[in-house]
Amino acid sequence: MGLVGTLVHASFDAVLIAVCLAGIRRSTGLTLNTGILGNKNHRKVLGFVVGLGERLFDISVAFMSAYPSIFQRQPPPPSDRPMY
Prior knowledge:
The radius of gyration is 17 Å and the shape is flat. It has two helices and no strands. It is mainly α. The relative contact order is 0.11.
């Protein structure tokens, strides 16, 4: 695999991770602490990637909501643990 293939693969992996982080933020409220990055450019790139993940997550949810015969909403299971 050449350089272009490696860059495409790494970009795709970064977007998948960003979509997972968006789902985690939506379901738990946990977010990344971008303040630990010292470089302002790194924070900007990370913010862009996470924002892209948020948009793709929204598109995925809208797509799934448009086909209720295929995708169903299920209530969350009851939890014995208290929410913090």
